[in-house]
Structure formats: structure tokens, C-alpha cells
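Hi F.,

I've been meaning to write this up properly since the lab meeting, where we talked about keeping a consistent format for the predictions we share between groups. The idea is simple: the sequence comes first, exactly as it goes in, then the C-alpha cells exactly as they come out, then a line or two of notes. No screenshots and no reformatting. I'm using this chain as the first example so we have something concrete to point to.
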Amino acid sequence: MNIKETFAVINKMQADGIISRFALGGAVAANFYLEPVDTQDVDIFVVLTPAPGQLLASLSLVHNYLEQRGFPLNREGLPVIAGWPVQLLPADANPLTKEALEQSVEHNVGGVPIRVFTAEHLAAIAFAVGRPKDKRRLDQFREEKALDESRFSQILQRHRLYDRWLASEGH
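Output, unedited:
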């Protein structure tokens, strides 16, 4: 599995106009800020570009593009790029992920640039989703002091999560 090649293909999709903007989220993104954790896929938050003459964007354009380049879909319907299943998620699904994309920062993986959600946005998304693995990731961000607590609090306040945060055991 070659994450550098995976990122290069995603960058090429953007250059070719298949997606307009994107940023890395999820566990792979968290690895930029935390001790590495094992994960099964790569979460890429995207803004899709509608096909010419279409009002709505579709993942079928992305899937066709990737399949033509030798990256088939797996049993779960995810494209597999350089050995990594890639989950393409809409960045505009909610205001928090939209903001995370807008404020993502550029990192470099072996000479390949990749935009990555900030640690604070990853932590806020983990808190909002609230699955056990997300709670563990949020705890890890706090234990490893990988967050700017002030910035994290501001994000929670903007997205109406702060009161829930104060009421939770996690603060």
C-alpha cells in the first residue's frame, strides 16, 4: 500500500477537473498530528464538479475516471488506489466539514502535497460523530496535547457543540 501514490492520484483528479477541492480527514489525517493508528481506508472530503451539462455532481464520474486508470471498486464500492480503499465524502455535507475543508492546511508526503484537516477540526468532527473510535481519537488528541484548546473551543462554539462538550465527561 502506497499512500504517496494514493495522494498523487487524488491530486491528479483535481488537476483533471474531476473534483474541485478536497482535503484529507479521518484517521489518516489524524496521523499527521498524533502517534500513528491503524486504519483500513482513506477519507477524502471532496467538492465534486458536475459533468458538463449536469446540475448535480455524481460519484460515477469519479469511479469511471479511476476505473479507466486501473483503480477498481472493491466489494464495499470504494475505489482502491495504490492498495488503499478511498472513501470519498461530500465536504459540504454539514457546516463543520465545509469549514474543515476551507481551513485545511497543506502537508507534504514524500514530495506530494496534500491538504489535511486541522487537528482542531478533526477533534471537533470526532466529538460530533461520537462513535467509540472517535471518542478514543479525541482523547488521544487531548492526551498528546495536539490541540490548540482555544481554537478547538471556538470551533465547537461556532458549530453549536460547546454546551454538549461542557456537559460531557470528555472536557
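Notes:
Residues 3-167 form a domain with the Beta Polymerase; domain 2 fold (CATH 3.30.460).
The radius of gyration is 16 Å.

If this format works for you, I'll send the rest the same way.

G.
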